[in-house]
Amino acid sequence: MPADAQTTFPQDEVHHAVSNGIGAPEFNLPLPDRPEIITANILKLLEQAHDPRLRFLLKTLTRHMHQFITETSLTTDEWMKAIEFLTRVGQTCTPIRQETILLSDVFGISALVDAINNPPAAGATESSVLGPFFTEDAADVELGHSIASEGKGEYMFVEGTVKGTDGKPIPNVTIDTWETDDHGFYDTQYTSREAPDCRGRLRTDSEGRYSYRAVVPVPYPIPGDGPVGEMLLNMRRHNMRPAHLHMMFEAPGYAKLVTAFYPAGDEFIQSDAVFGVKKSLVVNLEQVNDPERAKALGFKRAEGFKYLRKDIVMRTEAEARETRTQIDEKTGLPLFDD
């Protein structure tokens, strides 16, 4: 039986609780009759973790958490409210809604982890936060075809070439892309959702080229009907994200690139609720007023559309590892074990 199993038994059966199989430590810990002894004891126990990186992370996290509690003289009522809040965050998550990622996003944690792990390097396209609206069920889309059903917003055509830092095109790159409709909603936010929309999965051709039809993204509020939304109200912070188009690139031998592109001129670019905008990711959309070209690209209505040309540069896995190693050596921290 798993050590963490919570099982009930008929009263007429005799069972015994089972430990996880790890015995008492080979050293004695002082009984915690002072607050600081509690901190010292858990840090001593964490020395038993075999993996050096895990040991380092847990000890550092513990020190910071205990320091926060001590520095703020956290009350029992405040701690219980925090527990209740985190419980509600978890309970709000569903297979298509990720409130925990949203919590990480609004504190800038997602953006900070992304920035530290993906510094600008070798001319590679910069990354951005994944966000809570990525799903695995995007439909496969042929090059040049649409990720959005008709009537989801103003037409936009997106194309470019994916290359390595050596300038060579990368064929057969898997590209996931997703965005809001012109009402500011992702498909997962509609209770009537029957199939993915305003999202798709495509692959670059033999020359590394990609293209697809989409709609112009609009600014939108991150979900405000859950605990994270309530917290932002208490912080007196807006919950708006600037308009953006998500794209994720994967290819064998290359580091996964998760990024997004933000049309210039949006009023929320400099106060993004999740801190995801980087200067290099702000793009200009060209207005094309050519009905014949719109028709040739496959748009159902022969009218003007926005055009985005964005070439992508991916790092190899080796280049990404080298960047990570340089970060670890510079800070003197334990290296990651891949």
From TrEMBL:
Residues 319-338 are annotated as: Disordered. Residues 131-299 form the Intradiol ring-cleavage dioxygenases domain. GO terms for molecular function: catechol 1,2-dioxygenase activity; ferric iron binding. Its cofactor is Fe(3+). It comes from Coniophora puteana (strain RWD-64-598). One of its GO terms (biological process) is catechol-containing compound metabolic process. Gene3D superfamilies: Aromatic compound dioxygenase. Residues 319-331 have a biased composition (Basic and acidic residues). The keyword Cell wall biogenesis/degradation does not apply. Residues 51-125 form the Catechol dioxygenase N-terminal domain. Belongs to the intradiol ring-cleavage dioxygenase family. This is Aromatic compound dioxygenase. Keywords: Dioxygenase, Iron, Metal-binding, Oxidoreductase. InterPro entries: Catechol_dOase_N, Intradiol_dOase_C, Intradiol_dOase_core, Intradiol_RC_Dioxygenase. Transmembrane segments: none annotated.
